[in-house]
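Category: protein sequence paired with discrete backbone structure
Discipline: computational structural biology
Format: plain text, a pair of labelled lines
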Amino acid sequence: MSAPDDGRPDSAPPSPPSPPSPPSARPGRLGVGVVGAGRVGAVLGSALRAAGHTVVGASGVSEESRERIATLLPGVPHLEVTDVVERAEMVLLAVPDDALAEVVSGLAALGAWQPGQLVVHTSGRYGVAVLDPARKAGAIPVALHPAMTFTGTSLDLHRLEGCTFAVTAPAAVQPIGQALVVEVGGEPVIVAEEARGLYHAALAHGANHLVVLVAQAAQALAAAGVEQPGRALAPLLSAALDGATRAADVSDGPGAITALTGPVSRGDVGTVRTHLDALRALAAGTGATDVPASYTELSRGATSRALAAHRIDDRAARELLDALAPPPASHPDDPQEPR
């Protein structure tokens, strides 16, 4: 590995105008190295820089990553991963989930990790166990995951304000993770190592499948002749989401299901049957079989939760579930009706 840049004029390129203060200029400031300048890494690096830390280098293999470094981290050198780790007091690992373990162990095999170095990854799936190869070399492991979608642009910096970050770390290190989150404007929440899988599944189920639902609803609206389905859906879905997320934080009630409206919450079986007929016709005409399937499965879930919350009674729930039962499958040996 090459030696860290000592900042002398004869060993470093000219500095950009108004560079960030060096880490030693303010107590508690760190030299941050970004490994993986994708949508998340470049944005968090920029946010940490704005909080007074110095980004000493960033890595990225794609042209898009290079552009993000130039745009969100101007003046920060684009380096090989080992050079980033060598220069950094804090390494921010923002690589894909499936690559994280290999990156950590590969750097350990090269002897890249340094005692006392802070190693932070941004994967929602993992806690700190994945950082064990770095920890065994004396590094300090922290897992920080922002519960937010990223565009990889400066717009994301504003979205960090009030964003929840899952913090997983050894008890003695948790305050460091929490402080980093607060510095970038987020709200830290401690998530246990063994709960990371459930935590991440919950976020993916909510956010990713919400996008799928919007896509399905927009397709149905377009088929019904609505020219701008997104515009039609935005106010309705925004109000529903706001009501559900607010209700989810009420600890002494049934939670988000109290915001449920529509035919299931009224026990309106006839309307549900009409919906199913229309959506099955859409599927037959377009091949969008996922739409009636999703409607059916989520309506069953809505029925069960509405019953548990005493929004509907037992009779309404039975009628709804009967209407939502899959149609009987035809058998090849069944006699065919005469034409």
Q: What stands out?
A: Confidence is low (pLDDT under 50) at residues 1-27. The first helix runs from residue 39 to 50.
